[in-house]
Specification:
Length: 335
């Protein structure tokens, strides 16, 4: 996969990517494609929370706080959770309030996750994406993540689904370090950036945006912006967006009370907003067939157990239905 850059050539029908290969784009003379764009979150969405990758990442982030900010383990745990609650990403707090090297952080956290030992292709996930593609009801399938590009690429490659997506909008750690603040979900400008990356027009095309994410805050932000179809993926017994204290953390009573009060207040507020906005709740990606049936035409009976996006080992005798092999072109990346 290659990251796309702003066009520098004079050919209006192509745009260059970082590998120097021209990617065809729609010419002005062609009719506009008014079909929806479906945005997929990546982490804890394209794979389940039961894999505990989120917990592994929390430990790596906390260790970074201890080593690079010279904090005690207790203070690091509190500050990590506080930044996550306030900004949506612990890294956002680090960039705002500390002097750090974001690529060093990325190498010690996101890129240090042992994903090759955990992730593998899921036939049911491939089946779902194949059906969505073959229905021809969307103009693009797009990845939309708060992770850095290296992590996004690694996850979809290990899941065997990179060819299903037309591009990705990711959190640009490097640009965030230069700006002194990260642009990430649930910030409004991040959603507007995702629309721009896919060729949608802010203020006109929100009705063409469909979105699934495991974060209530991100789902609420999308609906506030006017995105038409938003599904909150809430796996049974999955932890909420706003974290509670980890077992075994021995924080001071004052810090613990403060963190829990902030978490509880924010969780209550955002759950009320989710209900008010009418955001759909699903417990498995397969339920997208039920909540957005108009996008899955002629794809069999929705909600069948065999179609649940489970996490079964990939078997040769059950590879899942796939589209005919598409022409291999680098996956454009929002920048």
């Amino acid at each position: 996969m290659a990251e796309s850059t702003s066009p520098t050539n004079t050919n209006s029908n192509t745009k260059p990517n970082l590998d120097g290969v021209d990617i065809p784009i729609r010419g002005d003379s062609q009719p506009e494609d008014n079909r929806p764009v479906f945005f997929f979150d990546i982490d804890n969405c394209l794979y389940p929370r039961s894999y505990k990758i989120h917990e592994m990442m929390k430990e790596l982030i906390q260790q970074y706080f201890v080593n690079h900010l010279e904090l005690t383990k207790e203070h690091a745990a509190y500050l990590r959770r506080y930044y996550y609650t306030q900004y949506g990403l612990a890294l956002s707090g680090l960039v705002l309030h500390h002097s750090i090297n974001v690529l060093t952080y990325n190498s010690l956290v996101d890129d240090a996750l042992p994903l090759t030992k955990i992730l593998q292709p899921s036939p049911s996930l491939i089946h779902l994406l194949s059906d969505l593609r073959s229905s021809n009801t969307t103009s693009k399938l797009w990845l939309f993540t708060n992770a850095y590009i290296t992590h996004a690429k690694r996850v979809v490659k290990l899941l065997g689904i990179e060819d299903f997506f037309d591009g990705v909008t990711y959190c640009d750690y490097v640009q965030g370090e230069k700006d002194g603040r990260l642009m990430c979900k649930p910030q409004r400008e991040m959603f507007e950036k995702a629309m721009h990356d896919t060729g949608l027009v802010v203020g006109r095309d929100e009705g063409r945006c469909f979105f699934v994410d495991d974060s209530i805050a991100n789902c609420v932000a999308a609906r506030r912006l006017g995105w038409a179809g938003v599904a909150h993926l809430a796996e049974p017994e999955a932890e909420p967006l706003v974290e509670e204290g980890d077992n075994g953390e021995k924080e001071s009573e004052e810090r613990n009370i403060e963190a829990e009060e902030v978490a509880a207040a924010k969780q209550t507020e955002i759950e009320k907003e989710k209900e008010r906005l009418g955001i759909k709740t699903i417990t498995d990606l397969s339920e997208l067939r039920v909540v957005f049936p108009e996008l899955f035409r002629n794809c069999g009976v929705p909600g069948e157990e065999k179609d649940r996006v489970g996490h079964e080992p990939l078997r040769e005798e059950s590879p899942g239905r796939q589209l005919p092999k598409r022409q291999e072109t680098p996956l454009p990346m929002g920048t």
